[in-house]
Amino acid sequence: MKIGVVGTGYVGLPTGVGLAELGNEVICIDKDESKISSLKAGKLTIFEDGLEDLFVKNVQNGRIRFTTSMQEGVEQADIVILAVGTPPNPITKEADMKYIHAAAKELAQYIRGYTVVAVKSTVPVNTGDSVEKIIAEQNPKGEFDVVSLPEFLREGFAIHDFFNPDRIIVGANNARAAQIIAKLYEPFAAKTKILYVHRRSSETIKYASNAFLAMKIQYINEMADFCEKSGADIYEVAQGMGLDSRIGNKFLNPGPGYGGFCFPKDTNAMAYMGRAFGVDLSLIEATICGNDKRKVNMADRVLQAVKDISAPKIAVLGAAFKGGTDDCRESPAIQIIQILLEKGAKVSVYDPQAMDNARKILGDAVVYAPDMYTVAKDADVLAVLTEWENFKTLDLQKIKALLKTPKIVDLRHIVNRETALAAGFEIFSLGIK
Ligand code: NAD
Fold first, then answer.
1. Spatial CB neighbours of 283, under 8 Å, sequence gap ≥ 6
2. What is the mean predicted confidence (pLDDT) over 346-353?
3. % pLDDT > 70, the chain
4. Which of 8, 243, 338, 385 has the most neighbouring CB atoms within 10 Å?
5. Is the CB of 85 under 6 A from ligand 1?
6. Are 2-197 and 207-284 the same fold in CATH?
7. What is the 7 CA–ligand 1 centroid distance (Å)?
8. Using 50, 70 and 90 to split pLDDT, how confident is the model at 268?
9. CB of 155 closer than 6 angstroms to any ligand 1 atom
10. 328 is catalytic
11. How far is the CA of 250 from the centre of ligand 1 (A)?
């Protein structure tokens, strides 16, 4: 099939590459000229495990191309996938539809023959209706349908998740559009549940899922706080909870709060929709509030470890919002660093992939270390803020020799507590007294 993908960000690019790998002819469109010239030059614009190999392979075999021209990407396409951003409105926190609406308006004029416009961006309920209206106004003779095709990939696992989705949700209001999408997802049909629902249900499934996962994170974080005071061990508690199949063992890892481009904005957007529809979504409201407070509490835990030192030097491992990605948007690590700086600490930071993105936010306010040991040189404490796998291999003796005082604040359950204690460290681990 011929597919146009509008937006080459964390969703659009892995989606485009994945669809090309499945044998489709893909054109990725972005209005950001620097991204497109990079991609045309064979240089990836984001880090995702496994993306590079597939990208190179499909560029070489000509199945994927990149352009800034909407016309080039849309006029031949059977399906046009919208994967542009839906950032929060800075004041109301509702999802801002300006990129979706602008893209719909722009693509409308290039629709030739029957085309399915699939909205993959996370969008409020009824967005399909507004996109349909915009396209019909711009191109009254255009033959098209708008479907909702929400994306559930996890950053850091985008390629894995593209090829192994838990489920595929299709919000199509008529059979013709549903059949085209069924053809697109045929390679998955044997092993993946493809659920066809009303377009508004599909739009809501995405928000309801993300809000639920955010609540689960906030819940286990509250339990971790409880364990710290009560003397229980959160990891034993989480394991015991997770053995109940009704609860499940995923998303029961305590941490510094959820972050990234999705959960914060999607919980806020869902809460906004609840208020707009006059529905009490108090669980979601409480989750947002608890998660916001958590970053401040976590910075306090780090400062607690160096409370007797004025202007302490804090070595931070991790800047990305989670391991496996270079994405620092709404990263708890970055937010904690910012609070530490406000409180007068000096911070050095190391992240295996997110240094460039961290620098865009933090500028010269911190020192950027070249590796996970140099960061600790002469620091009063080491704070682990992102769960990168290679941090698990830290040589504690080497770190101890570099730190001014052997103290670790582990907000990601990365450092083995017993080993650290035996090595003479003072260690704070979340959820353990
Ligand atoms: P992103 O900001 O990384 O990428 C969006 C891209 O769209 C940018 O490159 C931008 O230049 C481009 N763009 C905007 N308007 C355009 C236009 N008119 N024409 C062409 N290109 C245009 O965003 P993202 O993280 O990929 O997220 C995209 C959507 O997918 C959002 O709605 C998000 O909520 C949703 N989503 C994201 C994730 C994730 O893990 N990041 C997961 C699931 C769903």
1. 215
2. 98
3. 100
4. 385
5. yes
6. no
7. 6
8. very high
9. yes
10. no
11. 26
Report pLDDT for 51: 97
Cβ–ligand 1 distance for 122 under 6 Å, the answer yes
pLDDT tens track for 134-149 = 999 999 999 999 999 9
Sequence letter at residue 2 = K
Task: Could you please state the CATH topology (level 3) that the domain comprising 2-197 is classified under.
Answer: Rossmann fold (3.40.50)
- Kindly list the domain boundaries of the chain, sorted by start residue: 2-197, 207-284, 289-429
Q: What class does CATH assign to 207-284? A: mainly alpha
- What would the pLDDT profile of 372-431 be if each residue is shown by its tens digit? 999 999 999 999 999 999 999 999 999 999 999 999 999 999 999 999 999 999 999 999
Other C-beta atoms closer than 10 Å to the C-beta of 116 total 24
Residue 123 CB-density burial (10 A; 0-12 exposed, 13-18 middle, 19+ buried): buried
Q: Which two tokens stand for residue 241?
A: 């909870």
pLDDT at 59: 98
Q: Write the CB contacts of 387 (distance below 8 Å, at least 6 apart in sequence).
A: 255, 318, 322, 323, 412, 413, 414
CATH class of the domain defined by 289-429:
alpha beta
